[in-house]
Design goal:
heterodimer; A: 413 residues; alpha/beta; Rossmann fold; 23 helices; 10 strands; B: 447 residues; alpha+beta; 4 domains; 20% strand; binds flavin-adenine dinucleotide; binds iron/sulfur cluster
């Protein structure tokens, strides 16, 4: 089977093995076939036609969390994420690797009202115990109803930014979005929500989930639609590490100048805030005391290994909290988008390692800047909060939510 | 390097290793131990469908604080062990550049070294006892916890045996106390000759630094692109020197190294300000082999050791040989003990390049041996250096080695295809098998 890779990129791996300990699936299995080096070798063999794209090959590809920890570790600069996406793209084209119902599911993510309605259905099913939430890696109690998202009123000459709302996160964790908007409001920044595109849809999936599954056409269509919802030149802020990584990579996915210019406008929200920290109100006297809350910082892979923008989380939180670091060099937590549902056993073993690292670090609450990771860790009984929620609390903005003086309210559900 | 495994096993315990070996024996198969597969000489590459015994799932660690040692299963990763010992103030001293990935079993089998082995000694200086599964599945203990174990030092035979005399299933290694103070210096030279002279001068001045590493301009540029440690990319060569010990001594030695480097025309000497900067400087050195793919996708690495006084002379020849064959060469090495690592960098897809790489490699080995050096400092012989064995050893030497091996493994079950070339036993004709070497190179990338 031909795999749509750039052959030079595939040739770049010198099999040194320095990535092995940074790969979560190698760490928990100790098996070469579940390591980056093993996977690259398998892709080479299938691409050359020496081996078939059989069940064993699919298993090697499917068990990859696509955390890209191997990329940060690789001194040769092997672009592993691209190789893996190409392998899955090849599989999706040549085999029945992605059945119709999954393709349909990924497509539906672009239609945001459907996502919200679906989430509501799931929430109902959960309450009537129709779905085994823990086994599926779902959050304990999905919200039945989501409050409308509200941008804060600011001065007329305030700088403008776009705020990406996304698909599943907007349905499941709208509180995080709200906290982020509250923080931006306190900074005197005018946040704008995605503008309806030609299909009349505002926001929706950026295409990351479809792209990771190898459904590149769907990913491209969703990315193009998402781009249209953020016209102009204002920066685009993203509070989900996975979506941010995708939007920063549209230049590569779509290969157009327009997409490259778009990607250059994308920032992880912590990254942007850290660069504009002078706009933040200083920490109150409470934050100076020795009894500041102790926060363990968990780095989402797509923030640390893909965007390489994990340090700003610390810059943003440090004035208000005592931060503790994990000793696992950003090893994945096993959430990986749909991975926790598709590979529950491996996902749980990987999470166990992360829980060990969190225990060693101490801290009363975990900060995680990605919805997938935070749900996965919360499902293990931890208190996990988004840095924006922590910051909103520290700035005393939490209570203010929902008091209705917004400049533009919109029920997007 | 390509191999073909018959069966791959992932045992968890010593007993399971014994079962694997016995079953292999019943079916007339050889066994090949494998750790993390970072070996650079192909020692773990399976030939002729053997049973491969992979130790990666053998991860137990038991610290014996009273005796200041730790028992480990062979799959434990070198750096993991050091990290685990850190809260107690100890570490495992041998630190191969691959330490984040390589296993203790592999370290023992290859008698691996690392930058800090200049002062602390290579793996064999740190291994106290080894529990070994022999080729017939029997268990034995080599060495022991007594300060002066009775009899021959059979532990010493096992260390560096590259899987050819048995499989290590438990290893007792010494704990080394972490030094109270450490300083890392980066010296930047226009002329590689000055850098090499500075190395000898530092040691002549009575300092035995924990490490002295040298990198030439090409490798410095490549590595800087990966780590961004602020290495000077216009330097002809850089030295990375580390001194450790008590704070007063470290301060004095730092000043001395600084002075010696400047006396040898170093343009600048930078002392890392904190641990973070130190780590970054070392990360660059330790990922150097991997980083070369930024230039070309394949490399062929030699590991010869030459007397320190001949370092510069051999280095000059290395550049000259590579130039003559039109191959890019990069040099990164343990300068303190004269262990060269010339990396011949190429793209195997270019027609004819393999022959040129092969010829250049051969000439480099010749030049090193002619200067009074040895074939391998720390990476082992494995499959890859096997054809060169006859250059360093006489037939009598090789026969003695073969008989020692036979004493442990009379049926030739343990990694039989490695280290000693076919025909090492007396009576066979010992000659250089040139076509075999070429074929090895044609087999694929050298890693
Ligand atoms: C980037 C890079 C840098 C390196 N830097 C250094 C360096 O600075 N210094 C250095 O010395 N080496 C270095 N090496 C070489 C290599 O990492 C070492 O030789 C290491 O000790 C091999 O360990 P491993 O677990 O990967 O062993 P493997 O490669 O899996 O095996 C190596 C050999 O050990 C045998 N073996 C493995 N486990 C056992 C066991 N339990 N019992 C008996 N035999 C066993 C195998 O059969 C094989 O012959 C480097 C390699 C790379 C890729
Ligand atoms: S992906 Fe990079 S780090 Fe991993 S084996 Fe290949 S070259 Fe080495
Ligand atoms: S992306 Fe993550 S899971 Fe996949 S091979 Fe790389 S390190 Fe392993």
């Amino acid at each position: 089977m031909k795999i749509p890779v750039v052959e030079d990129e595939l040739a770049q791996c010198v099999s040194c093995g320095l990535c092995l300990p940074h790969c979560p699936t190698f760490r928990v299995t100790g098996e070469e076939r579940y390591s980056p080096r093993g996977r690259i070798e398998a892709i080479r063999q299938v691409h050359r036609g020496d081996e078939p794209a059989d069940a064993s090959f699919i298993d090697m590809m499917d068990t990859c969390v696509q955390c890209r920890g191997c990329e940060t570790a690789c001194p040769s600069g092997v672009p592993f994420g691209r190789l893996m996406e190409a392998a899955r793209e090849g599989l999706a084209e040549a085999t029945r690797y992605q059945p119709w119902y999954r393709r349909l599911g990924y497509r539906a993510l672009a239609v945001h009202p459907l996502v919200v309605a679906g989430s509501r259905l799931l929430a109902l099913a959960q309450r009537s115990r129709l779905v085994p939430s823990a086994r599926l890696g779902l959050p304990d109690r999905l919200p039945l109803r989501v409050a409308p998202l509200r941008v804060r009123a600011v001065a007329a000459d305030a700088p403008e930014v776009w705020f990406h709302t996304g698909c599943v996160m907007d349905a499941w964790q709208r509180d995080v979005h709200d906290a982020a908007l509250a923080v931006l409001g306190a900074m005197g920044v005018a946040a704008r929500l995605p503008q309806p595109n030609r299909r009349g849809l505002d926001g929706g999936c950026c295409g990351a989930l479809a792209g990771h599954a190898g459904l590149i056409d769907i990913a491209r269509a969703q990315a193009t639609a998402t781009m249209a919802t953020f016209p102009g030149s204002a920066p685009i802020l993203v509070d989900s590490a996975g979506c941010g990584a995708q939007l920063k990579d549209l230049g590569h996915l779509l290969g157009t100048d327009e997409a490259r210019a778009f990607s250059a406008r994308v920032f992880d929200i912590q990254e942007w805030i850290a660069a504009h920290a002078d706009r933040l109100p200083g920490p109150g006297p409470a934050a100076a005391g020795a009894d500041r809350p102790v926060v363990a910082v968990q780095d989402p892979c797509h923030l640390r290994h893909v965007q390489r923008a994990h340090l700003p989380v610390r810059q943003v939180l440090r004035p208000y909290f005592t931060l503790v670091e994990l000793d696992d060099e950003g090893l994945c937590c096993g959430a990986g988008g749909a991975y926790s549902v598709l590979q529950p056993e491996l996902s749980r073993q990987i999470r166990d390692r992360k829980l060990g690292a969190l225990r060693r670090a101490g801290g009363s609450v975990v900060a995680s800047a990605n919805p997938g990771c935070s749900m996965h860790l919360a499902a293990a009984g931890l208190e996990v909060r988004h840095p924006m929620e922590l910051l909103a609390d520290a700035l005393g903005l939490a209570a203010e939510a929902g008091d209705g003086d917004g400049q533009r309210d919109r029920d997007r559900g | 390097m390509r191999g073909d495994a018959g069966v791959v096993c992932f045992p968890l315990t010593t007993e399971e290793v014994q079962h694997c070996v016995r079953i292999a024996g019943r079916h007339g198969r050889a066994v090949v131990p494998r750790g993390a597969g970072t070996g650079l000489a192909g020692g773990a590459v399976p030939k002729d469908a053997p049973v491969v015994v992979v130790t990666t799932k053998m991860q137990q660690v038991e610290v014996d604080r009273d005796r200041r040692l730790v028992w480990v299963q062979p799959g434990v990763i070198n750096l993991d062990l050091t990290k685990q010992l850190r809260p107690d103030g100890f570490h495992f001293a041998p630190d191969p550049s691959s330490q984040q990935s390589c296993s203790l079993g592999g370290n023992v089998a290859n008698n691996s070294g690392g930058p800090h082995c200049l002062a602390y000694g290579v793996t064999s200086a740190h291994v106290v006892a080894i529990e070994v599964v022999l080729g017939d599945g029997e268990l034995t203990m080599l060495g022991g916890l007594d300060p002066e174990p009775a009899g021959y030092d059979l532990r010493g035979v096992f260390v560096g045996s590259e899987g050819c005399v048995g499989i290590a299933t438990r290893i007792a290694v010494r704990l080394t106390p972490n030094p109270p103070a450490v300083a890392t210096l980066l010296a930047d030279f226009v002329e590689p000759a000055d850098a090499a002279a500075a190395v000898s001068a530092i040691i002549a001045a009575g300092v035995v630094p924990a490490a002295i590493e040298m990198m030439d301009q090409r490798i410095t540029q490549v590595v800087e692109a990966f780590v961004g440690a602020g290495y000077p990319t216009d330097a002809g060569a850089i030295l990375l020197v580390e001194v450790d010990g008590l704070p007063g001594g470290v301060a004095a030695e730092t000043a001395l190294v600084d002075e010696v480097c400047r006396a040898h025309r170093a343009r600048s000497v930078r002392v890392a300000a904190d641990d973070e900067e130190r780590m970054l400087l070392w990360k660059g050195r330790k990922t150097a082999f991997g980083a070369v793919a930024r230039v070309k996708p394949n490399y062929y690495l030699h590991d010869t050791v030459v007397p320190r006084t001949k370092l510069l002379d051999v280095l000059r020849q290395v550049y000259e040989i590579a130039d003559r064959h039109g191959i890019i060469v990069m040099n990164v090495f343990h300068a303190g003990d004269g262990n060269l690592h010339p990396l011949l960098v190429f793209d195997a897809r270019e027609p004819g390049v393999l022959d040129r790489v092969h010829d250049a490699g051969e000439e480099i080995v010749r030049a090193s041996l002619d200067a009074g050096g040895v074939l391998s400092g720390e990476h082992g012989i494995g499959l890859e250096k096997q054809p060169f064995m006859g250059w360093q050893f006489t037939t009598v030497d090789l026969d003695a080695q073969a008989r020692l091996r036979d004493a442990f493994d009379p049926d030739g079950r343990c990694n039989p295809a490695k280290v000693l070339p076919a025909g090492s036993r007396c009576g066979d004709l010992q000659h250089l098998d040139d076509s075999r070497r070429r074929q090895l190179l044609d087999d694929g990338a050298w890693v």
